[in-house]
Amino acid sequence: MNDRYEHLLRKSRDAKRGEHDAWCVQSTGEKVAVALVLNRADWLAEIGYTIPEAIERSGTEWVAIIPQVARQLAEEE
Fold first, then answer.
1. Which of 6, 35, 73, 76 could form a disulfide with 43 if both were Cys (CB 3.0 to 4.6 A apart)?
2. pTM, whole model, 2 decimals?
3. How confident is the model at residue 19 (pLDDT cuts 50, 70, 90)?
4. What CA–CA distance (Å, rounded) separates 62 from 60?
């Protein structure tokens, strides 16, 4: 696992546990990626992003790890 993966996993865990309040304090880039991980289109809409815009904003390196992070979070339940 690399630093990006660990960072996104940590931020996603925080938002999953702390819900909206934990997500709100993240940077815009983190919010976008975490909302994709957690499948929260409503959170994306709140910050003015559609799913395609969020994917574009995240970039290919982050988008490539989003499914892995989502799977790991699901396995932790």
1. 35
2. 0.92
3. confident
4. 6
Alpha carbon distance 56, 73 (integer Å): 23
Q: Which of 54, 14, 13, 53 is nearest to 36 (CA)?
A: 54
CA distance 37 to 55: 11
Strand runs labelled E in 1-77: none
User: Phi, psi (5° rounding) for residue 14?
Assistant: -55, -45
d(CA 21, CA 5): 22
Q: How far apart are CA 70 and CA 77, in angstroms?
A: 11
Burial 24-51 (b: 16+ CB within 10 A, else e): eebeeebbbbbbbbbebeebbeeeebee
